[in-house]
TrEMBL record:
The keyword Nucleotide-binding applies. Residues 27-180 form the Histidine kinase/HSP90-like ATPase domain. Belongs to the heat shock protein 90 family. This is ATP-binding region ATPase domain protein. Pfam families: HATPase_c_3, HSP90. One of its GO terms (molecular function) is ATP hydrolysis activity. The lineage of its organism: Bacteria, Bacillati, Cyanobacteriota, Cyanophyceae, Oscillatoriophycideae. InterPro entries: HATPase_C_sf, HATPase_dom, Heat_shock_protein_90_CS, HSP90_C, Hsp90_fam, Hsp90_N, Ribosomal_Su5_D2-typ_SF. Keywords: ATP-binding, Chaperone, Cytoplasm, Nucleotide-binding. PANTHER family: HEAT SHOCK PROTEIN 90 FAMILY MEMBER (PTHR11528). ATP binds at E34, N38, D79, T170, R317. The keyword Zinc-finger does not apply.
Length: 661
């Protein structure tokens, strides 16, 4: 073999980050990504020169081949690309970090979507992280070119010789170090290809089989993709997950290049909104599982792919956060997400409502953290409501029912008119502006809401019975979102259903109560005093009111809005669970038969030894029981509280059965 030249590799560092041999990257495994990326570039370059007419040979069936020789401890990566001449090897290999990709693009101006990866300019030299010797065997596409063989053992010394190669392209052969022999395992190489190179646009062959998908749906036009194409990509990227709710296709080449597909997943209440799930690619080359510095914070729970050549990959995370282009890309992504949500709201309201439980979290979180996004989506913020929209006849909607057919033996489903703003269960959704306008005459600029449908069911029904509409703000983000709504709508007062009762719920036109001449107190005052003495809880404020609805309970616990919020905020700052406030209101419903009977019972006249009355004692026990039931509607008991409740219940029932005998 004729030696063409011997010399010393010239290292240029003025246009790259510092090169430290064997420490180019944190993970040595990325060497394979770099070599395969270079091979893809070589094939892309050949297509470009073929289009210009400089090359008329066969460029069909491009491929990259990976081969392992365990006996020789070698790993090779071969391509059918453009190849190199001896002069190009000297220029692009011996002068480390000379950007051949950049120079090539300037000459040929890539067209028709052919992309040069380019960002991985140091890729070839990453092979020295795992190899004690690297060889290049290459033949250029140029007519009359001669094949050359380059060898380097990791020192600045190299050898450039002629080669017997007869096929166009390049083969890189690594003789692996003894502590890097894991890369001689077929399964390890397949795993690395799946991780880093799965969507590269060239088939990667190993042992006669293609081991990558080699198509990236996000680089396609949305018009060319079906619903199943989007779902197939999601299932592949996130196996064993529930189907996504909807997706956003990103595709722009000005003023920056961004492609991608972002998916809205179903969210669990314990989701970590700070944990990124989006995969970052550069020209279909996987870069990272984390895009925290590239996408807006509120979009972290989204899944999918972002692919861009305009995101600098060789700077620190802190520099990424302040990079102007990265900020513009983040704004673009947020706007595209907002546009997609508005499109769905406009074109398919019921599908939007179906997704709302999960999509609403993104919208609310985005509104809290991004003013531009807030303005974009403020008109599509919706809330589940107790409102029942009227039908064309003016009557409130009723649930779907079944009736017998004329034959009498077949049950047919009769569907009522369904509003576009209802979900499959017939539950209505409304915007805040619609709510305020609809209730302006009844309770102007006041919003009644609940945070726990089960625990606050009694309060909700009380409001519904008097025609008061209640909004459901019961997602895990709504604790913060309510305060946000109040800041945005400073003229509106938000009241939780268990904080205070609206005047329309209280009977104001009842006759004046008669004063008992013996005690000089009204019936309400006697009831209030009975509960105060029975409970002996100075921090519980006893109120007596006559409530309108016939279905209201004998007593309800109210938590004043300002006090409850202060306690919730304190618990949040201390990273603790908010305790049930000891200072609360027990509202006793004097219109309830149980309370009326209780007042009569407490006046029992039989006095036992010690000055106690059996009727009065039973009345006190019932007061405790009524209070316990009111508490149970608000919170669960701890072990001691449940024990006391069960014991009191047994005593009350025992005494009542004794009286009945």
């Amino acid at each position: 073999m004729t030696v063409l030249e011997q010399g010393t590799i010239t290292i240029h560092t003025e246009n790259i980050f510092p090169i430290i041999k064997k420490s180019l990257y944190t993970d040595h495994e990325v060497f394979l990504r770099e070599l395969v990326s270079n091979a893809v570039d070589a094939i892309a370059k050949l297509k470009m020169v073929a289009r210009t007419g400089e090359y008329s040979g066969d460029i069909s069936n491009p491929q990259i081949t990976i081969a392992i020789d365990k006996d020789a401890k070698t790993l090779s990566v071969s391509d059918t690309g453009i190849g190199l001449t001896a002069d190009e090897v000297k220029k692009y290999i011996n002068q480390v970090a000379f950007s051949s990709a950049e120079e090539f693009i300037q000459k040929y101006q890539a067209t028709d979507g052919e992309a040069i990866i380019g960002h991985f300019g140091l890729g070839f030299y990453s092979s020295f992280m795992v190899a004690k010797q690297v060889e290049i065997d290459t033949l250029s596409y140029k007519e009359g070119a001669e094949a050359v063989h380059w060898t380097c053992d990791g020192s600045p010394e190299f050898k450039l010789e002629d080669s017997a190669r007869t096929t166009r392209g390049t083969t890189i052969t690594l003789t692996l170090m003894d502590d890097e022999l894991e890369y001689l395992e077929t399964s390890r190489i397949q795993q690395l290809i799946k991780t880093y190179c799965d969507f590269m646009p060239v088939p990667i062959i190993m042992d006669g089989e293609t081991i990558n998908r080699h198509t990236a749906p996000w680089r396609e036009s949305p018009n060319n993709l079906t619903k199943e194409d989007y779902l197939d990509l999601y299932r592949y990227l996130y196996p064993f997950q529930e189907e996504p709710l909807l997706w956003v296709h990103l595709n722009t080449d000005y003023p920056f290049i961004v492609n991608g597909i972002l998916y809205f997943p179903k969210l669990r209440p314990d989701v970590d909104v700070t944990q990124g799930n989006i995969k970052l690619f550069c020209n279909q080359v996987f870069v990272s599982d984390h895009c925290e510095e590239i996408i807006p914070k509120f979009l972290m729970p989204l899944r999918g792919v972002i692919d861009s050549t305009d995101i600098p990959l060789n700077i620190s995370r802190s520099a990424l956060q302040t990079n102007r282009t990265v900020r513009k890309i983040a704004d673009y992504i947020a706007k595209k997400v907002g546009d997609r949500l508005k499109e769905l709201y406009r074109d398919n309201r019921q599908e939007y409502i179906r997704c709302w439980q999960d999509v609403g979290t993104f919208i609310k979180f985005g509104s809290l953290n991004d003013d531009k996004f807030k303005k974009q989506v403020e008109e599509i913020l919706i809330f589940r409501s107790t409102y029942k929209p009227p039908t064309e006849s003016g009557e409130a909607q009723t649930p779907e029912v079944q009736v017998q057919s004329e034959d009498g033996d077949v049950w047919e489903e009769v569907k009522t008119e369904k509003s576009l703003s209802t979900d499959e269960q017939g539950r209505y959704y409304t915007t805040l502006s619609e709510y305020l306008e609809r209730n302006q005459s009844r309770h102007e600029n006041r919003v009644f809401y609940c945070t726990d449908e089960a625990a606050q069911a009694t309060y909700i029904e009380l409001h519904k019975s008097q025609g008061l509409e209640v909004l459901f703000l019961d997602s895990f983000i709504d604790t913060h979102f309510i305060s946000f709504l109040e800041r945005e709508h400073s003229e509106v007062k938000f009241l939780r259903v268990d904080s205070e009762l609206d005047e329309t719920l209280i009977e104001k036109d009842k006759p004046a109560e008669i004063v008992d001449p013996k005690t000089n107190k009204t019936r309400s005052e006697q009831i209030k005093e009975l509960f105060e003495k029975s409970l002996n809880k100075p921090r519980v404020n006893i109120r007596t009111e006559s409530l309108k609805s016939e279905d209201t309970p004998p007593a309800m616990v109210l938590l004043p809005e300002a006090m409850r919020r202060l306690q919730d905020m304190t618990a949040l700052l201390q990273q603790q669970k908010a305790d049930f406030p000891e200072d609360h209101i027990l509202l006793v419903n004097t219109a309830h038969p149980l309370i009326q009977n209780l007042a009569n019972l407490s006046q029992g006249s039989i006095i036992q030894e010690g000055g106690s009355s059996p009727s009065e004692e039973l009345a006190k026990m019932i007061c405790h029981h009524v209070y316990d039931l009111a508490l149970m509607a608000q919170k669960g008991f701890d072990a001691e509280g449940m024990k006391d409740f069960v014991e009191r219940s047994n005593h009350v029932l025992t005494r009542l059965t004794e009286r009945a005998m």
